[in-house]
Specification:
Blueprint: H1 2-16, H2 19-24, E1 33-34, E2 39-43, E3 48-55, E4 59-66, E5 73-79, E6 84-90, E7 94-100, E8 105-113, E9 122-132
Antiparallel strand pairs: 1-9, 2-9, 3-8, 4-7, 4-9, 5-6, 5-8
Length: about 140
Amino acid sequence: MFKYLFILFISCSTYLCAGDCFKSTSDMLKDYILDGQQHVLKIKEGLKGKAYFTFFEGFVYRVVVCSNVVKNYKISVFDIENNLIYSKNCDNYSSLLDLKFDANIAGYLLIEVGDKQNINTFTFDLTIGIKEDKAKK
C-alpha cells in the first residue's frame, strides 16, 4: 500500500511542478507589471506549440518562458502574417525575452522542441510583464 501511495505522490508532484516556474519568475519580472494571466502552453502532439498575443506600441514586454521538463527548445515570435520578428534557442529550462514594438502587432509565440525526449506532453509556462516605454514619451 505504501509503495502505491509513494508512486501516486511522485506522479502528482511531477505533474503539478509546472507551478514552480511561475514562482521562480518573480525576480526576472521585478520592474514589470504582470498581465494578470498565467499562460500555459501544452504540446500534446508533435514538437511545436503556438500562443497568440497582441503587443501594443509604447510598451516594453518581458516574456519569461519556463519548463520543468524540457531543457532545450527554440522560441520564435511571428506577426500574424508569419513574418519572423525574433528567435532564440534556449538550453536551460527557462528563457527571457525582452520585446519592444514600434506599432501594434498581433502575432504568436512559437515554441519548438528539438526531440520527443520520451515525454508525451510538453508543458511551458509563459509569464508576461509589461512596462511603459519611457523613451517613447
